[in-house]
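Anyone else keep sequences and structure tokens together like this?

Example one:
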Amino acid sequence: MASHGKKYLEARGKVENERLYEPLDAITLLKNIHFTNFDETVEVHMRTGLDPRQADQQIRDVVVMPNGLGKQVTVVVFAQGETADAAREAGADFVADSDEMVEKIQKGWTEFDVAIATPDMMGTVGRLGRVLGPRGLMPNPKAGTVVQGDKIADAIKEAKAGRIEFRLDKTANIHVQIGKLSFTAEQLHENLVAFVLAVRQARPAGASGSFIRRITVTSSMSPGIKVDPYASSLTL
């Protein structure tokens, strides 16, 4: 078992392990037990009752955080011609409209957070699957990252504003970031609510019984705090 420092143990001592906190109370406590000197990322870990082995129990969707994520989002766009020009004008950090850029990514360069592509570029993007796939960067229509040329500016804007993709992992959990500890408790609460409601709306057809079993909020260095998944603000 990993050992923890004195400050971590003091922080953990302020958390009631068996209590299911109201969402805003959990976030307020998380901010109060903060003990590092840097702006930690706030994370949500959700345990579901789904079976990841079943095709009708998968979740993969997106949500735009109302208050962003507190970080600069780097976007690369796979497009050609006028759409590539439109992507640059809309604020894309990189535009992969040349063999040189594609080869650079093929060799392992992934210094970006989101990859967006037009449908006509998916043949090219497909060749980069071994690089983009394992890093969760592969453009996907369901995630809103494969779009027609006339939608490219909107897709870039949403990505930079704090749109995140969430998906079920092999252990039936979903993990996302919802902002920074420097956010107000109300801002983090709004982001948490947006995420949980998006998951509920994405409930797969094969889900039965207890869908969301546990929600935990934590930050980069702090202990986790359990949130009541049936709190009024987190239900549809």
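And example two:
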Amino acid sequence: MATICVFMGSFMLWYMVKEPGMNHAPSMAAVAGFTWAWIATSPSTRSGQPRAMHEWALLGALAGVMTLIRFENALFAILPACDVLAILWVSARAGDRVALTRTVLGCLLCIACAAIAFAPQLMWKAIYGSYFGTLAIRPELQWADPHISDILWSSRNGLLSTSPILYVGAIGFVVFAFAQPSIGIPVLLAAAAMTYVNASFEDWWGGDGFGMPRFDGLIPMMTIGVAALSATLVSFVRRFPTPCAIGAFGTLAVWNLTLMSVAQEGRIRLGEAASFGEVGAAQARAVHRWIGMPSTYPASLLFAWEGDVSPADYDLVWPNRMLGDPRRPYGQIDIGTVDDPFIEQGWYVAEREGTDTFRWTSGMAILRVPLDHAASLKVQARMRAFTYRGAPPQQTSISINGRRGPLVTLGPAWQVIESVTDARVWHAGINRLELDFAWAARPVDVGAGADTRLLAGAIDYVRVEVVGGSR
């Protein structure tokens, strides 16, 4: 049942049904076969009986095959390597030269069989001129800047956020590791290494793939985790049936609360027929607005706490943070175009004039600027002042996290104002950029039209750029 749940609930279903021509399904199968052979021949599962030479050979051949399919699968060699280190340590302390010799010979045989199975891939020599060449289009590995949090919890193909069943499997495997440390700990080490490598890829999100298929080799381990956690939960429910029942039925109370919320917001008309599809979507949005997406925890909760925002903002704000790509030391928020995640108070509805999209402000407007890291930045804002006959000169300033910049005179035509800021005024996460104007007026009060809004200036975009390549 755990296998069925993981298969149906993860990205693997896509690569078995929609894109079976890709290598992710055979990669998963090869790692599963290697893991099975490792567990079946492990001394810890056979009362200390050491591996025979033919078992070392089989393990090596399977290692070569799985690496032949995907090079990153070589990381799962950590599993038998942990066995070898443990045996060598115990044998050396006990002075058991026979066990030491047998283990060393077994390792050498394993490596030799892995090399033979991997040999077809050495066609790289003919193509690239090197036995260990790489594809020209392969993304670079940035070892010093891994996106660990992103690759696990981001809405941009995060492993756990987009496949919640794998969150269950990950938690369950930790439970399993406590019960079976000789198997669980090596797998956790391999999973940690796989996470670090995948998070170090330049395109850590995996391009335009579905989900996070670079973790295909971990699917068999996730199945073990789901089974382990299921067994634990069954035991827990048997011990505490009443609280579990209350918790389960409590979801119906949440359903009612969300229905009340969308009714209060006017999304449904009381006493009239409504589509439960539309009502359900509105209820789901209400829950998301309150608590965000649980499969992004704890990353979204930490993000919300540090930035004083809702966990729901994590979905769009953090994946679109600026300076996250070393090749793009700049970032821009186009006001009036998909800017809802970034605007706070002081903004009116989006408008368009020709090709320009913008929003009017009411005298003070706050913008969220998500940064990957602090840096000295040049801030640019394209804006124009609201004006009328006899209007006083308009002045504006840009404040970053409460630190006000110099005043700039603003005219009725579009212009770009700039402010150079020190790295000390910024921080990683959400920064508040505040635009302050000297005065605001209602067009209806000054003979400039029938608009009753209090207007100060219109903003087209806000852009930041690293000064001097600082970080």
